[in-house]
């Protein structure tokens, strides 16, 4: 079966896409830039922020490209004067009620509102009026919520419902008072939130920030190192944020297994890396006190004790539980060791519990 | 050479006599913030952000102009020091535009760095604010006196070359401002646009006009190059964004020689992916022309192609 295709022209570039493709997706395929706030390829189409408006002759007004389906013969102008003017006004309206504190904002340098304001040269706030003055919510150890910076794009709402399946936050109140809240407008800490931080990963501005990371470093000061989460067998990918040779936080990247989704342990459980209590050498109890030992000494001791148990009580008196924090190769070696050296089939894995 | 021993934050350090506390701290790997200090033109002591606590001294001295003495004890981040620095930052921010949003120096600004470090989110002081017009009267440098913190680095850098000395402090008190002679725009002064002032400006008061709106610091990579137009060997940086070379800015002058405009413009032609096209005045208006036309080589070229 062949997929029906449509051919359209975007900024003079002809592009052929499968029927049902949006103008935004077609533009990205053609390498034409269109700014977005509320759009996310992993989430349902929303069409709220209007930043992605384009000009399509014959249409009544400037449609949002993220929710407009491409049709055959369609002509699209993604950066015409009318489009630029509309985007500028949208930015001015957003900035009319946004704190001007990039100076110390943790998202400075990784903020779409800032990127687009710079791109379209929106320097001032021509609209004056009431501004939100919500208190900062930082009573939990993981996420700082600043609803004064929220642009109500609703990505966090959809990420919570569609990626994490928790639906903790949603839109509440109306008009100027519209706000993202958990049920009954309680803080996240009093809600059913599991602090996976997947809302933080999709927030395009500074409304949701990782508490530790954003206080420790600005976005351009960190080196990002992609790695695999060591906590369980799922194998999520993420980026360690490294500043001055120290891990200061974790951010999502586009992982093969997990996309940008992570759990609370993966995203926020990096404190052990540089923790002063972390064990860095083996310890052996001598005269009732743990003392540091060499690896040779420690492995020698374990080997001698295991051999002793096997000799005195037989192989079936031994059992092994291996860990999801080990690699496949290490787990393979452990079961090989259990069966071939210890001589028992009693081996299990914590991921089965 | 005679030496003195002192203690900075509990670390014992030995330095040659005459060394400033700031230099000694940096030798010991201890961070002290500075705005007006420049290793090439040191000892100005204007901004006070480098103050430290030295028991026995009357107040918090500026470490950039305080010489180390034998047995001296220095605390660089004591509560009193941190409080002083916060107040200095609040005073600076009381009269500084809050427009990091679109500032071309966002991400490469010491005022921002230190405000973040010391958690100074807003100024506790309200009062009159400067409202100077933007000076973009020349093709190279944009001067925004509203963002100037009067550290004087541009003045000292410019005055280090005798025949330059184009700018200096003008007026008094709140009206103090960095000015050219007679407070004319830079475009009407003797400025040759070597750009050393822009290179040393710690904030967004001096920025590159050809780069305005073209990219923030974290979007660009920098490659150091040596100028090839004379034998002085000044160094420049080629800035690139998304794989395109978009600008050339001065870095360090060669010995005994300031960075010249010829070097920078020449390097732009050499390195930029889209260097400015030549222009010729035709009927009183500048119009873009080909290099062949600008250099009067059309006749020779046509013969060569024949």
Blueprint (SSEs and pairs):
The complex is a heterodimer of chains A (353) and B (306).
Chain A lengths: L4 E6 L2 E6 L4 H7 L45 E2 L4 H15 L16 H8 L23 E3 L9 H9 L5 E4 L6 E4 L15 H5 L5 E3 H6 L6 E6 L8 E7 L2 E6 L12 H5 L14 E4 L2 E4 L2 H19 L6 E3 L5 H15 L4 E3 L4
Chain B lengths: L2 E6 L2 E6 L4 H7 L45 E2 L4 H15 L16 H8 L23 E3 L9 H7 L7 E4 L6 E4 L15 H5 L5 E3 L12 E6 L8 E7 L2 E9 L8 H11 L7 E4 L2 E4 L2 H4 L3 H8 L1
Parallel strand pairs in B: 1-3
Antiparallel strand pairs in B: 1-2, 4-7, 5-6, 8-9, 9-10, 11-12
What does this protein look like?
Chain B: Residues 80-119 form the 4Fe-4S His(Cys)3-ligated-type domain. Chain B: One of its GO terms (molecular function) is 4 iron, 4 sulfur cluster binding. Chain B: InterPro entries: 2Fe-2S_ferredoxin-like_sf, 2Fe-2S_ferredoxin-type, 4Fe4S_Fe-S-bd, 4Fe4S_Fe_S_CS, Mopterin_OxRdtase_4Fe-4S_dom, NADH_UbQ_OxRdtase_ferredoxin, NADH_UbQ_OxRdtase_Gsu_4Fe4S-bd, Prok_molybdopt-oxidoreductase. The complex is a heterodimer of chains A (353) and B (306). Chain A is of the alpha+beta class and 353 residues long. Among the domains of chain A are: 5-79, Ubiquitin-like (UB roll) (Roll), CATH 3.10.20.740; 222-278, ADC-like domains (N-terminal domain of TfIIb, Single Sheet); 293-352, no CATH class. Chain A contains nine helices and 14 strands. In chain A, strands 2-1-3 form a three-stranded mixed β-sheet, covered by helices on one side. In chain A, a hairpin with a 2-residue loop joins β1 and β2. Chain A is elongated. The model of chain A has no long low-confidence stretch (mean pLDDT 95). Chain B has 306 residues and is an alpha+beta fold. Among the domains of chain B are: 3-77, Roll (Ubiquitin-like (UB roll)); 278-306, no CATH class. In chain B, 21% of the residues lie in helices and 19% in strands. Chain B has helices spanning 21-27, 79-93, 110-117, 153-159, 196-200, 261-271, 291-294, 298-305, and strands spanning 3-8, 11-16, 73-74, 141-143, 167-170, 177-180, 206-208, 221-226, 235-241, 244-252, 279-282, 285-288. Chain B has a three-stranded mixed β-sheet, covered by helices on one side. A three-stranded antiparallel β-sheet of chain B has the order 8-9-10, covered by helices on one side. Chain B starts with a strand and ends with a helix. Classes of the chains: A alpha+beta (353), B alpha+beta (306).
């Amino acid at each position: 079966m062949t997929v029906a295709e449509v051919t359209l022209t975007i900024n003079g570039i002809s592009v052929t896409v499968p029927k049902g493709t949006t103008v935004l997706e077609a533009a990205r395929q053609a390498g034409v830039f269109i700014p977005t706030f509320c759009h996310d390829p992993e989430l349902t189409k929303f069409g709220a922020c209007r930043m992605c408006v384009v000009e399509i002759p014959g249409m009544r007004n400037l449609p949002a490209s993220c929710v407009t389906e491409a049709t055959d013969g369609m002509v699209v102008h993604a950066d015409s004067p009318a489009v630029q003017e509309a985007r500028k006004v949208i930015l001015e309206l957003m900035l009319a009620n946004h704190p001007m504190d990039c100076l110390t904002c943790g998202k400075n340098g990784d903020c779409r509102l800032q990127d687009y304001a710079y791109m379209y040269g929106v320097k001032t706030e021509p609209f004056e009026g009431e501004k939100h003055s919500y208190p900062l919510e930082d009573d939990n150890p993981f996420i700082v919520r600043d609803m004064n910076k929220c642009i109500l794009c609703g990505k966090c709402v959809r990420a919570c419902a569609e990626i994490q399946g928790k639906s903790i936050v949603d839109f509440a109140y109306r008009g100027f008072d519209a706000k993202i809240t958990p049920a009954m407008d309680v803080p996240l800490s009093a809600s059913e939130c599991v602090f996976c931080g997947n809302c933080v990963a999709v927030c395009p501005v500074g409304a949701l920030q990782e508490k530790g990371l954003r206080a420790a470093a600005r976005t351009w000061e960190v080196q990002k190192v992609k790695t695999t989460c060591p906590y369980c067998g799922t194998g999520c990918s993420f980026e360690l944020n490294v500043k001055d040779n120290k891990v200061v936080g974790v951010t999502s990247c586009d992982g093969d297994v997990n996309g940008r989704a992570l759990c609370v342990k993966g995203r926020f459980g990096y404190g052990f890396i540089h923790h002063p209590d972390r064990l860095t050498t083996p310890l052996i109890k001598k005269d009732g006190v743990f003392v540091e030992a060499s690896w040779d000494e420690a492995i020698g001791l374990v080997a001698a004790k295991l051999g002793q148990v096997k000799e005195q009580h037989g192989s079936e008196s031994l059992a092994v539980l291996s860990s999801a924090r080990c690699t496949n190769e290490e787990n393979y070696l452990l079961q090989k060791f259990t069966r071939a050296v210890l001589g028992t089939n009693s081996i299990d894995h914590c991921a089965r519990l | 050479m005679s030496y003195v021993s002192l203690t900075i934050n509990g670390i014992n350090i030995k330095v040659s006599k005459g060394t400033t506390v700031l230099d000694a701290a940096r030798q010991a790997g201890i961070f002290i913030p500075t705005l007006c200090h420049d290793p090439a033109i040191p000892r100005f002591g204007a901004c006070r952000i480098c103050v430290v606590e030295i028991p026995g001294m009357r107040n918090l001295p500026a470490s950039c102009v305080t010489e180390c003495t034998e047995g001296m004890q220095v605390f660089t981040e004591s509560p009193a020091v941190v409080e002083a620095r916060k107040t200095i930052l609040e005073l600076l921010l009381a009269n500084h535009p809050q427009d990091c949003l679109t500032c071309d120096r966002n991400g490469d600004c010491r005022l921002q760095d230190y405000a973040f470090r010391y958690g100074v989110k807003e100024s506790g002081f309200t009062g009159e604010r400067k409202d100077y017009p933007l000076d973009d009267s020349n093709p190279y440098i944009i001067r925004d006196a509203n963002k100037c913190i009067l550290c004087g680095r541009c003045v000292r850098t410019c005055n280090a070359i005798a025949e330059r000395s184009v700018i200096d402090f003008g007026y008094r008190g709140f009206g103090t401002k960095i000015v050219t002679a007679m407070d004319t725009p830079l475009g009407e002064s003797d400025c040759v646009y070597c750009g050393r002032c822009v290179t040393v400006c710690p904030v967004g008061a001096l920025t590159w006009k050809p780069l305005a709106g073209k990219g923030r610091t974290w979007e660009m990579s920098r490659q150091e190059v040596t100028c090839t137009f004379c034998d002085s060997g000044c160094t420049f940086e080629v800035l690139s964004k998304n794989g395109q070379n978009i600008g050339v800015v001065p870095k360090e002058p060669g010995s005994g020689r300031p960075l010249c405009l010829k070097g920078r413009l020449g390097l732009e032609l050499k390195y930029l992916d889209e260097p400015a096209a030549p222009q010729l005045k035709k009927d009183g208006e500048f119009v873009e022309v080909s290099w062949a036309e600008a250099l009067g080589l059309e006749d020779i070229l046509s013969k060569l192609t024949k």
